[in-house]
């Protein structure tokens, strides 16, 4: 039985503390050829920058909502974890009533959010060449903020994801069959829910090899080169 930490920020902190230098999330996109590897410490830096953007930059916190209208990606992981660290609730479907929106230029996201950010999810975290009207570039904006976040009060019964609390989301993530300490290759198209591709591995103490536009012919060699112990 996996012991579940009471909030998502505590799950992340435990994962980073366990091994800050080893890869925690490795992202592949077989359409673009992108490969990005983030250690626990590096992912935590992006999470902290995102949380600082939300709290110090926008004045948001507990009771506010961030619409994260993005596909599975390492930046999506950093944004979602930053949202939760800042004490906000995340919505991946309902963008209309959010306090802040993060999306890609190609997405149609109706929203009343006063603060709107776009990211191209480009290799090397490159900024967008053309920014949609009314949007700031997430990559450019987040880099202006510090890579240490002092923390925000987050309770197990605070809203976390699509109306569910931290307690409920983590209980669902703990139902996983991912072995403790595994290195798991995840097909993003088959597992688009962040509970499956992000939180379940973190709860299990696993490291993630997240693959977008996965070329099935590459699975065997990738699993071998990345020392994967489980393919999902």
UniProtKB/TrEMBL annotation:
Residues 15-90 form the AMP-dependent synthetase/ligase domain. SUPFAM superfamilies: Acetyl-CoA synthetase-like (SSF56801). It holds the Pfam family AMP-binding. This is TIGR03089 family protein.
